[in-house]
């Protein structure tokens, strides 16, 4: 009888192992769900890559059109200020009133009769942003004494002008001029403007291009992470533009 009491039928064996089979099936289901579930979204403050869009503005002028790409990640206040003027239609009908061959062209304030328009309040200087005044870059024009005096005027460098870069906070002269964009299409138009003959006109003793180049319109044409033509360096946010056109002789400075 003792031997009979220790004997187990096949049915009894299956019942004893049933909980183990159920456990294995449960673990298999968990593994399947874990593989099928999408990865969790990155929490705020994590190292997830953020794409910075670079707005582009097309300026149509009486001498041709060009496109500038703006760098809000480097100069947010200056870009926002420029875009506000663009959205307000402020630049329509203004002129490039200053051109210095082999140096820069400047505009964005004066009308065809060289009268200044009323501007928004000046903005803080953002020249210490790591960008250099290289050929083709767009920078905020300001009073040379007061760094925080930029309003609507801007200039485009036609050559590399590192002397206009930020050096230190000692004075307005050392604080530099804030680069906030770059010409990505139509640099040849900028060179044409730079090559115009100049002279005195209106309130200016010189450097006024003849004829005056009118900004017929300035319009936002969309946001883009990459420029329309030349690639922008992810390190510095800029690249040198193509070589300048041949400069006019006998230019006034």
Strand content: 15-25%
Q: Based on CA inertia axes, which overall geometry fits?
A: globular
pLDDT < 50 runs, ≥5 residues? 1-18, 29-34, 36-40, 224-253
Helix residue percentage: 10-25%
CATH class division of the domain at 54-224: Mainly Beta
Major beta sheet, specifics?
8 strands, antiparallel, barrel
Strand-pairing-aware structural class? alpha+beta
Q: If you consult CATH, what is the topology of the domain at 54-224? A: Cyclophilin
Please provide the count of β strands.
10
> How does CATH name the architecture of the domain at 54-224?
Beta Barrel
Write the H/E string, N to C: HHEEHEEEEEHEEE
Strand order of the largest sheet: 1-2-7-5-6-4-3-10
Give the helix tally: 4
Mean pLDDT: 80
The gyration radius over C-alpha positions equals: 32 Å
- Name the CATH homologous superfamily of the domain at 54-224: Cyclophilin-like
Report how far the terminal alpha carbons are from each other.
122 Å
Give the tags.
4 helices; eight-stranded antiparallel β-barrel; 253 residues; alpha+beta; Cyclophilin; globular; two-stranded antiparallel sheet
Task: State the gist of this model.
This protein is α+β, with helices and mostly antiparallel strands and 253 residues long.
Give a description of the structure.
- The protein has four helices and ten strands.
- The protein has a domain at 54-224: Cyclophilin-like (Cyclophilin).
- It is α+β, with helices and mostly antiparallel strands.
- The longest helix has 27 residues, at 10-36.
């Amino acid at each position: 009888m003792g031997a009979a009491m220790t004997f187990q039928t096949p049915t009894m064996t299956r019942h004893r192992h049933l909980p183990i089979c159920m456990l294995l099936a449960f673990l298999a289901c968990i593994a399947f769900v874990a593989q099928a579930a999408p990865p969790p979204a990155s929490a705020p403050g994590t190292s997830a890559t953020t794409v910075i869009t670079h707005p582009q503005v097309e300026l149509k002028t009486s001498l041709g059109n060009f496109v500038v790409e703006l760098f809000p990640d480097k100069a947010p206040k200056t870009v926002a200020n420029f875009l506000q003027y663009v959205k307000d239609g402020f630049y329509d009908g203004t002129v490039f009133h200053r051109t210095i061959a082999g140096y820069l062209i400047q505009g964005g304030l004066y009308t065809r009769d060289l009268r200044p328009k009323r501007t928004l309040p000046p903005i803080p200087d953002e020249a210490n942003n790591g960008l250099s005044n290289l050929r083709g870059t767009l920078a905020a024009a300001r009073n040379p004494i007061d760094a925080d005096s930029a309003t609507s005027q801007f200039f485009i460098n036609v050559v590399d002008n590192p002397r206009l870069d930020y050096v230190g906070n000692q004075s307005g002269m050392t604080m530099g001029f804030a680069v906030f964009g770059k010409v990505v299409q139509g640099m040849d138009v900028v060179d044409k403007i730079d090559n115009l003959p100049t002279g005195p006109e209106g309130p200016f003793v010189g450097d006024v291009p003849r004829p005056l180049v009118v900004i017929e319109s300035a319009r936002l044409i969309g946001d883009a992470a990459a420029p329309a033509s030349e690639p922008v360096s992810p390190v510095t946010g800029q690249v040198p533009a193509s070589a300048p056109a041949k400069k006019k002789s006998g230019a006034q400075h």
